[in-house]
Amino acid sequence: MTRHVDFVSPQEPSQEEAFSKTSDFPPQGVLIRNASKIYGVGKKRCAVLNGIDMSVKKGTIYGLLGASGCGKTTLLSCLVGRRRLDSGEILVLGHEPGSPESGIPGPRVGYMPQELALFGHFSINETLHYFGRIYNLKTDFVTSQLEFLSKLLDLPPSHRYVGTLSGGQQRRVSFAVALFHEPELLILDEPTVGVDPLLRHSIWNHLVRQSVDHGRTVIVTTHYIEEARQANTIGLMRSGRLLAEDSPENLLRDYNLSSLEDVFLKLCMADCVNEDKAANRIPAQQQCTGGIDNVAFHPSSSELNISEKKNSQQMELNLLQRKTHEPPLSLSLADVSQTSFTNFNGTRVSKRSNRIYSKSVLPSANRLSALVRKNGLQMFRNIGMLLFIFLIPAIQVILSCLSLGGDPSFLRLAIVNDELDPSQDRICNYTTTCTYSMFSCRYLRFIDNTTVIQVPFQSVLEALDAVKRGKVWGVVHFPKNFTDELVVRRADGKFADKETILASRIAITLDSSNQQISLSLKQSLIEAFEDFSKDILAACSYEPTALGIPVTFLDSIYGKSEPSFVEFVAPGILLSAIYFIAVSLTTAVFLSERKAGLFDRSIVAGVQMSEFMIAHVVNQLVVLIGQTVFVYIFALLVFKISFHGSLALAVLITLLQGLCGMSLGLMIASLCDELTSAIQLCLGSVYINLFASGILWPTEGMSVYLRYICYAMPQTYALESLRNIFGRGWGIERPEVYGGILISFGWIFSLLGLSLVIGRIRKYAR
Ligand SMILES: Nc1ncnc2c1ncn2[C@@H]1O[C@H](COP(=O)(O)OP(=O)(O)OP(=O)(O)O)[C@@H](O)[C@H]1O
C-alpha cells in the first residue's frame, strides 16, 4: 500500500519540497565522526560518548545495541538536535541537525523517545491529530494513517484516552506517532519494549518495508539483541564507544558465533581486557556510562579460555579478509557533504561545532493552532479543574474579604466596680437625668456590647488572675468614690490634685498580646466615655460636645471617614491571587510537559520555543479573563469594595499582572529540572512578593531599606496603580497609574526574554 504525505497549506514548504532541497547530496542517512559528549561540570564531569564514529546508509535499518546506560539515548538526542556534542560532527540527511537546511527538528524525522511522551488526557485520535497539525498534514491523511497503523500495531479504539491504556498499548501509540507522517528518517528509542513477540515481529516487518519499499532510514535501539538481525547494520555500543559496526551476517561470520548476543558478549569481554590493560598504562577518564561494566560482564583474562582465543584468531582472520576484499561500509564525511564540512577532507578532524542556527523567527500558524488547541483541550477536558482554576482567585478574594479587617467581637472584659454597695447586692443602678450619681454604671451602659462582654468581678486581684489565665482580655476598675471624685476633678479643673485625679480615673489593665484586640478594646472604651460625657452634658442642658477634645476630622477627600482594612487590602489580594496562580500554573504545565518528554517530542517535530510561549500566552489569557471576571464580580458586587475609577483600566492592570506571573512561571520552568525545586522557587517568590510588595501593609510602614527592595518587585507599582484607581478614581493620565502599567509591561518582556535566554543556554549546555 503506497501512502503519500498530504500537506495542507501552500505557505509552508511541503515535505517533498523540503526534502528535494537535499537531493544534490549523495544518498546518506546519518554520519557521526568522533562524537564526544560530557555530562556535568567540575568534579562531576563524566564522559558519556567517547569518540563515536557511526555511518547509517540512507534507506537502511541501523540497530544500535548496547547495555543500559552506555549512551544510546544521548546519541539519539544529539541526532535529533536536542543535545549538543562537546566535540565531533554529526550529519543527518546531509546536514547538521538544527541547521535551517536540515529540516531536523521538523517533519523529516520521526522520533520515538524512550519515555512515553504522550498526553494522558488525549485520546489516540486527538494525539495523532495534534502532531498532524504540527506537521501541517491534511485531516484525511491523518485519519487514514490512523486506520492503517491501528491495524498494523493492533492499537485500541482511537477514542480511548492514552492515560487509560496499558504500558504496551501506550508504547505502540508512541510508535504510531513517530511513524504516521512517513518521515524520511525514523529514530526509535526502544520501540519494542513491552510489546509481545508477535507484534514485535510485525513492527520489524513494517520497519523493513519502510526501508526497502520507501527508502526510509531507520535507527533503532533495542535491548532484544536478536531482533536486530533484521537490521542492515548493527552498531554495538559499550561505555560510550562503538565496539563494532557491521551487518548482522558479517558479525556472526567474523566472530564465528551463532547468535548476536554471543558476539556482543565476546566484544564486551575483549573490550574489558583492553580497558584493564589501558587502565594500567594511562589513568582512565571518568566515565558516566554504566551498562556492561558489571561483574557478570567483567571477566579476568584467565576466563578467556583457549577456545575463545582460537575464536579470536579466526575472527581477526575473517576481518582481515573482509577488509581486503570488501568496500568499506562507512562513507567519509567528505564524501557525504563537502559543502557542509570542507575542513574535513576525510581526515579525523574533531572540532566542536559552535554554530547556533537562527531558525525562522516567525511562528507558524499551523503549529500555533495545534498548540493552542492542545492547551485548550487539556484545559477543558477536566471541567472540575478548569472551574477550580477560574474560581481560585475569586475564592481567595472571598476568603480575605470575610476574614480580614472585621472588628473583633464578644471580647470578655472583667469589670471591678468598687462604687457598688455590697449591702445592696452590688446592683448597678443609674439614672439618665442630670444627677451626679453612679457614674460608673452610667458609663458601662455606653460600652458597645457587641465588642465587649462585661464580666463582673468582686476584686481587682481576682480579675487580674482571670486575665493571667486568659479568661478575660482585661480589667476595668472603678474606684470606690469614682462619681464624687470625678465631679470634684471637673470642678477643680486645672487645680485638681493628684489624689483626686487618681481616685477619679477608670483604671484599665489589658492583655495586649493581641494588637488588634487591644486596639479594639481601647477604641471601644474611649468611645463609650465620649458618649457618656455627651449624655450627661445633654441631660444637664449643656452643649454635648463641650468637653470633647478639640480635634475634628472633616469629610475625607478620598475614601470613607472610617476606612476599613479590607478596602486597603482587597486590590492587593486580587492582584496577588491572579499573579500567583499564573506563576504556579505556568511552572506546573511547562515542567510536567518537559518531564514527560512531551516538550522534546514537540520540539523534535518542529515546534519552536517561542511558539510554545505564544500558545501558552493565548490560553493563559483565556484563563486570566475568566479569573478576572469572577474576582471583580465578588469584590465589587458581592463585597461592595469601594471603587471610584475606570473598570477597564483596573482590568487591564489585573490582566497584565497575570501575564507577569505567567512570565515568571516560564522563567522558573526554564531554570528548574525538578518539580520540587520549581515549587520551592514558586513558594519563595510568593512569600517575598506578599510581604515586600505592599500587599498586606503599606510600603510607608516598612523599614527604609526594605522599601528599595519593595520597589524592585513586579507587583508594587501595579498595586499602587490599582489602589489609586480603586480608592481615588485616578485615570490613565496620572503617572501613578500609567507608571504601574508601563512597569508591568517591562516585567513581562524582561521575564519572557530571560526565559528564552535561559532555555537557549540550558539547551546548548545539555
Ligand atoms: N542529563 C544528564 N546528566 C548527567 N548524566 C546523564 C544525563 N543523562 C544521562 N546521563 C547518564 O549518561 C549515561 C548514558 O545515558 P543514556 O540515557 O544515554 O543511556 P542509554 O544507553 O540510553 O541507557 P538505556 O538503555 O537504559 O536507556 C547514563 O549513565 C546516565 O546516567
UniProtKB/TrEMBL annotation:
SMART domains: AAA (SM00382). Residues 1-23 are annotated as: Disordered. Keywords: ATP-binding, Membrane, Nucleotide-binding, Transmembrane, Transmembrane helix. Residues 30-264 form the ABC transporter domain. InterPro entries: AAA+_ATPase, ABC2_TM, ABC2_TM_bact-type, ABC_transporter-like_ATP-bd, ABC_transporter-like_CS, P-loop_NTPase. Its main location: membrane. It is a multi-pass membrane protein. Residues 535-762 form the ABC transmembrane type-2 domain. One of its GO terms (cellular component) is plasma membrane. SUPFAM superfamilies: P-loop containing nucleoside triphosphate hydrolases. One of its GO terms (molecular function) is ATP hydrolysis activity. It is found in: Membrane. It comes from the Eukaryota. The chain crosses the membrane at residues 383-405, 568-591, 612-635, 647-671, 737-758. This is ABC protein, subfamily ABCH. It comes from Daphnia pulex.
